[in-house]
Structures are given as C-alpha cells and as structure tokens.
What does this fold into?
Amino acid sequence: MEILERLARSADKVQMLIDHFEIREVIESYVHACDRADVDAVIDVYAEESWDDHGHMKARGHDYARTVTDALLTKWDSCNHLLGQSRIKVSGDTAGAETLFYATQTRHEDGVEMLDQQLGRYIDRLERIDGRWSFIHRRCIQEWMSSRPLGGSIVDIADYLRGQRSESDLSYEVLGLSKGCSRITR
It folds into this structure.
C-alpha cells in the first residue's frame, strides 16, 4: 500500500508541475502577443466568458484584446514586457496566479521620443477548458508608472536588428509561432 500511496503523491506532484508550466505559458503568451501587437494571439489566451480590468480599460477579455492592441498600435511605437515571479495555486481545473511585471512603451510626443514605464502585478483567475488553460478574470495592479524623454543611446541602435510588431518578428520563426497564437506547441 505504501508504494501505491507514494506513486499517487508523485503523480499529483507531476500534474502540479505540468499545470504550473502550462499556466505560466499562458501568462507569457499574453505578453508576447501584446509586445508583437497580435490581436488574435491576445484573444487566444482569454476564455470566451472572461473579464479584464486594466484600470482605465475594463472589458470582456476578447473586447479588451482588441482595444489594447489598437492602443498599442496607434499610441506607442514599441512595447516590451519583462515577467518576474509567478505564484500559482491550482485546484482541479481552476487556478489563481499572481505575476510581477515590468513594461516599457515608447512613443513620440511633440517631436520627443518618450519612455513610459510601469511596474505592477497581474492577478489572474484561470480555468482549464477543453484541456487548455485560459484567463477567466485578469486584474492589473499598478505599483508605479513613469514617463520621461528617452534620451540618447550609448551605442548606434541602427547596428541592431529591430523587433517587428507582426508575425515577421524573428520570435515567430524560432518559436514556431503563427499569427494569432503565441502559445508554443510542445
């Protein structure tokens, strides 16, 4: 009996690791899709009946995806997210997660290149629907925000490859992604 109990506990732990990995993949897919301004890929991480609360933008998940992608394309020249630690609790087919993020956007204002920065946390509720984790309720907590002129670079940026806000970005090629889905197939 002891062996069967240990095997059952091991199977539970393996499932927990798989769930945590898959949930973190959803969180990472969201920021990749935002950074690349891929509206269909942002929509892909939200369940049909979902809600997003990003402060001044509150909407159903799919509507939020369209609104935020439009804003990213019309207001900012670039967007980049860095994710910190995620704390994840899984209970069957539902989960809660808290993830620290740092995001930067660049834009032009009166001929000056501006850098907008923010530090915050995503507070997420997710559900596994048909074997896939998706956001059900996402809340964005802002710890601080800042805007300032970007200033000069210490190197000639023209010597570097530039990120693209479309499926022509090099990440789509190396990660095997297609427009409309930032989830890596394994």
Observations:
- The domain at 2-175 is CATH 3.10.450.50 (Nuclear Transport Factor 2; Chain: A,).
